[in-house]
Amino acid sequence: MTRPDLTDEDILGMLPAVDWNAMLRAAQEAAASPPGPRRLPEPTTPYGLRHPQAGTVRWSCKLGCGWSHDENPGAEVASMRIVLPADFTGRDIGDALSAQAAERHEAMLQRVEDAFTEHYASAHPARQSDDPT
Ligand SMILES: [Zn+2]
Fold it and tell me: Which residues surround ligand 1, an ion (CB under 5 A)?
């Protein structure tokens, strides 16, 4: 934060438009949404709400070998930092959070894609990672 005169409570008070639970849900929904042009398998959420790892999203190998890659978008939301201009307003905070959410989502899909590329190369070398079948 660039305003040392503000306490955390002051800053949280400037966040009327941000519902952290809704944000967490949005992150999870985004993670569960179809991968679009990327050829990732449909992800699952392997843990229930009361599980310590609730919110984990898992992509499993399409070839059924048992390998999977986990991400936890909710944990990322809880640990994120935002960068704001010195004279920021509540709107700046909202914009920064939206931009950051999109960035995080993209970075997460890239990590998943990289993990799959690496997995297919090492465990299924005869298989192309972009093979749709
Ligand atoms: Zn595999």
Answer: 61, 63, 65, 67, 123
**Separation of 65 CA from ligand 1 center, angstroms?**
4
Label residue 14 by pLDDT band (50, 70, 90): low
- Chain length of the chain: 133
CA 2 to centroid of ligand 1, rounded, Å: 46
CA 55 to ligand 1 centroid distance, Å: 23
Distance between Cα 19 and ligand 1 center (Å): 38
DSSP letters of the chain?
---TTS-HHHHHHT-TT--HHHHHHHHHHHHHS--TTS-PPPPB--S-TTSTTTT-EEEE-TT-SS-EEEE-HHHHHHH------TT--HHHHHHHHHHHHHHHHHHHHHHHHHHHHHHHHHH-TTS-TT---
Model pLDDT, residue 104: 85
Q: Which of 10-14, 23-27, 114-118, 122-126 has the lowest mean pLDDT?
A: 10-14
